[in-house]
Amino acid sequence: MLVPVTSDDLTGYLTGSAPDRSSTPEWIADTLRTAITDGRCQPGSRLREEHIARALNVSRNSVREALYRIRRLLEVGAIRAASPDGLAAALPRAAAALADADAAAGRADWQAVGTANMRFHQAIAALAESRRVDETMRLVLAELRLVFHVMARHRRFHEPYLSGNREIYALLAAGDLDAAQRRLSGYLDAAERQLVDAFAATTS
For residue 108, what pLDDT is reported? Predict the structure, then answer.
């Protein structure tokens, strides 16, 4: 069972007022790491965006940016650390997720496309061959899935990432880890901008 972390749980872990926008995500991540290290965020806790944003007095968009930075650390770091055995184990999972996404797109089931996309990125994180990384990635993706509802045009949101996932898979299958890292970084940059812009439009 995931225990929600409330804004009160993060009180006392602020390292001062929020800095300028360019460094706000790093500040949020540092504050969360401190709270986790000190035991205020227990294992299995669910980090709800609205509680974090309220506690830190920052926008929910900034929280989302921080979550995307965590994804970069997990996924790009997993590719960087990938071993031949890790690739051999993760690539079939990634391929299965791609096949499921294509099938779902064929029947215009964009929610299922989103689910398959999550499974693809879980397979990427699995390259780290770490249960802790797997669990952290699962929680981060669960939080992100909750905010995808703002993308009113689900096809327009998900469809471009089908080809991006295939490109990343092809690079991994070819053993070109450096190129896979670069492609994934650009992919996450685009996804972050798209999601943050969508939320900005709903609150403007």
Answer: 92
